[in-house]
Amino acid sequence: MADSRDEPLVLGIETSCDETGVGVVRGTTLLADAVASSVDEHARFGGVVPEVASRAHLEAMVPTIQRALKDAGVSAKDLDGIAVTAGPGLAGALLVGVSAAKAYAYALGKPLYGVNHLASHICVDQLEHGSLPEPTMALLVSGGHSSLLLSTDITSDVRPLGSTIDDAAGEAFDKIARVLNLGFPGGPVIDRYAREGDPEAIAFPRGLTGPRDAAYDFSFSGLKTSVARWIEAKRAAGEDVPVRDVAASFQEAVVDVLTRKAVRACKDEGVEHLMIGGGVAANTRLRALAQERCEKAGIRLRVPRPKLCTDNGAMVAALGAEMVARNRAASDLGLSADSSLPVTEPHVPGAHAHAHDHDHVHEVSKDNLYS
Amino acid sequence: MLLLALDTATPAVTVALHDGTSVIAESSQVDARRHGELLLPAVHRVLADAGLRLDAVTAVVAGVGPGPYTGLRVGLMTADTFGLALGVPVHGVCTLDGLAYASGIEDGPFVVATDARRKEVYWARYEDARTRVGGPAVDRPADIAEEVAGLPAVGAGAALYPDAFADVRGPEHVTAAALASLAAEKLAAGEELLEPRPLYLRRPDAQVPKNYKVVTPQ
Ligand SMILES: [Zn+2]
């Protein structure tokens, strides 16, 4: 096992929202990233329906595990550990993934690592750009989160500097897309329309950017209302809504605030690396503006490819592999799904775990395991 | 033959091992809010009691409900994954059938009812302990009161609504031991068991919560 400790082979399971993700990594190398999404089933509701997501996870889990192992070209018995998103997320959805991971780890005789979804979004960048610099500043933006996090060790120290006080950034994209009748999810379609629009056509407000406002917190609720009112006023006046300009101007307001605050946090904390993750990190304008502003400020920007930014199992496997590599305590078989797992807890060690209790699951159940 | 049976469709988290002749180990805990936490440790305990390892299991039997969904899925997901990891078949058994079997009532008709929450019951009608003749369905007790009037009724769902179910019998919750015994009988008789897919009986609530995707605690 000595060599596998450096490059652990880990399977990761993610079910915190509407994607059933199973990934396989070897250390910081991506071997497989299988995702089954129920997004189409949610589209007509204009948002993620938890019960629909949970039902879909149950159906998709076993085929998705099989696909991930096949894509990776590895056998389950060679795994060094099973990682799973323990939280935060939708409670019922998380529970499906945690149940699968526990059963799989137990049946295979592998250690189990319940890990934090947000820390996984940061750690996934190791699969793209190699080991995370320490410290790393992370801007996480998706339909569920908008946070600035500072990490000196992704397995043990993640500090929240700020987060949204109302809507998540991705949620604002969904809502504006709905007002513009562009469907769900809103992110990709707004991005597409915005490319042909003028980002300076309409001056939408930049929330929480006043001198007395919290430097690292976000607010997108006022922006959302302002955009919706602007559109309604146009419609009420019988005028055409310039969809492309609205999309571009709205998007600019979001990414301006996100990048401005992220760069400021890096400067204030003396951090030279910024990583951006979460579904909104797939936004082309966010990537471009972040690149521009980071270059100007002398900050190295790390943004994974879009498929690794949205929820997936590879990110969970990446963090699980890091837990194995750094000898963190495994979770035990009583691991629960925690819908509000704090970001300050990158993983959920077992109740009786201590610092070097790497083989906790083995200890609990070695008589009943294969090997 | 070694069957591992489990059920999480009622407030009970229940696990049993059956060797083809009889139940050799079992565990039942009643805690409707902790299915996820309790199931795997229970599996581990039952195996340890029997002095066996999980890889000795030749088939998995899971209660497919009907039952409140979140708990129900814990058992089915666990069974599915064991099936994958062990390379053994996974069978489904209707949870209400397990209760009917455990009741031991030979002269029907009688009904089984479990709590479906929202002032409803999951229920089915039986000719005898092994023969379901109606259901499973989900209904308000008042709406089926006439249909079930005068019939013995098994299960915690019946005990909740004495106006509809006058003659309540035990057991309250299903046991995996009953499920395993029923499955073993059926398999020995060459009968097909169910697919291990959940009996939801209701469409999902198509409600998008206000902060539908929030995974950052506020
Ligand atoms: Zn996410």
Automatic annotation (TrEMBL), chain A:
Top enzyme class: transferase
SUPFAM superfamilies the record matches: Actin-like ATPase domain (SSF53067)
Pfam families named in the record: TsaD
Reaction catalyzed: L-threonylcarbamoyladenylate + adenosine(37) in tRNA = N(6)-L-threonylcarbamoyladenosine(37) in tRNA + AMP + H(+)
Residues annotated as binding substrate: 140-144, 174, 187, 191, 283
Sequence positions that bind Fe cation: 117, 121, 311
EC number(s) per entry: 2.3.1.234
Compositional bias (Basic and acidic residues): 354-371
Database matches in PANTHER family: TRNA N6-ADENOSINE THREONYLCARBAMOYLTRANSFERASE (PTHR11735), TRNA N6-ADENOSINE THREONYLCARBAMOYLTRANSFERASE, MITOCHONDRIAL (PTHR11735:SF6)
Family membership noted in the UniProt record: Belongs to the KAE1 / TsaD family.
Protein name as annotated: tRNA N6-adenosine threonylcarbamoyltransferase
Organism of this sequence: Streptomyces aurantiacus JA 4570
